[in-house]
């Protein structure tokens, strides 16, 4: 009888997964980040591609949906004030971490976390708010041929920066009254343009929404897993569910809110991350071109990679 050879066979899928895992480890090592940070960053290209596919196969969605309007409640009260909400949730989360006796590496982790937040806040400010005048995203728009058009004479401010329009731009002609004078400028920011009821037109406009939403989500998720692993996080969420049921059963609404904000801000963090990802998907469907969304993501990646080195 021939000897029995014990050969362990690996399922083809397991082999492919092992190869993917090795590739991810290799990429993370080259970028000097850990695999979790890499996986979080890889979610955004998937969302952008999904948004583009929805835009291609369901064009009606891009013109007949509540989220097509920039005045939808989530955009006006959350995304437009995105860094405020990120800062508030981060502050509550950090405060709860300092009070949580189950958290290890607390002192080193908190200091590092605050440094990272200071860095990415600076990056957000320079990219979307101010950078020696116009923010970086507006400078890119202007350098690629963009200007603020369609500013009426009565709305005009700092007139030395404006020139009279001659109405040669067909896309803008329908928005203007030929009996009035309208002006354009390549020296003001998008925020100033909006305040004068002008129209940002003509250049490559990196998506500030994609930048903010992906940067904020990356930061919040990486800091969440800096202090909690999957096991401790599940325990925390289970305890929150038990406490919430008890509070609501006894109609203890104030204690419930106090518990939510002081003891379980990780729930608020996860809710905000979920909202940011949803709004990121909608942004990629309804606003900006693919290249403009990828440009916003690129600058978000730069800021995140800088923060990972702290």
From TrEMBL:
Recorded catalytic activity of this chain's protein: hexadecanoyl-CoA + H2O = S-hexadecanoyl-4'-phosphopantetheine + adenosine 3',5'-bisphosphate + 2 H(+); (5Z,8Z,11Z,14Z)-eicosatetraenoyl-CoA + H2O = S-(5Z,8Z,11Z,14Z-eicosatetraenoyl)-4'-phosphopantetheine + adenosine 3',5'-bisphosphate + 2 H(+); an acyl-CoA + H2O = an acyl-4'-phosphopantetheine + adenosine 3',5'-bisphosphate + 2 H(+); (9Z)-octadecenoyl-CoA + H2O = S-(9Z-octadecenoyl)-4'-phosphopantetheine + adenosine 3',5'-bisphosphate + 2 H(+)
Record has Amino-acid biosynthesis as a keyword: no
Enzyme Commission number(s) from the entry: 3.6.1.-
Subcellular location: Endoplasmic reticulum membrane
Membrane association type: Multi-pass membrane protein
Example GO BP: phospholipid biosynthetic process
Transmembrane segments: 38-58, 78-97, 117-137, 210-228, 260-279, 285-308
Gene Ontology CC annotation, any one: endoplasmic reticulum membrane
Active site: 209, 288
Keyword line: Endoplasmic reticulum, Hydrolase, Lipid biosynthesis, Lipid metabolism, Membrane, Phospholipid biosynthesis, Phospholipid metabolism, Transmembrane, Transmembrane helix
Stored PANTHER family: ACYL-COENZYME A DIPHOSPHATASE FITM2
Name of the featured protein: Acyl-coenzyme A diphosphatase SCS3
Annotated source species: Ambrosiozyma monospora
Taxon lineage: Eukaryota, Fungi, Dikarya, Ascomycota, Saccharomycotina
Gene (UniProt): SCS3
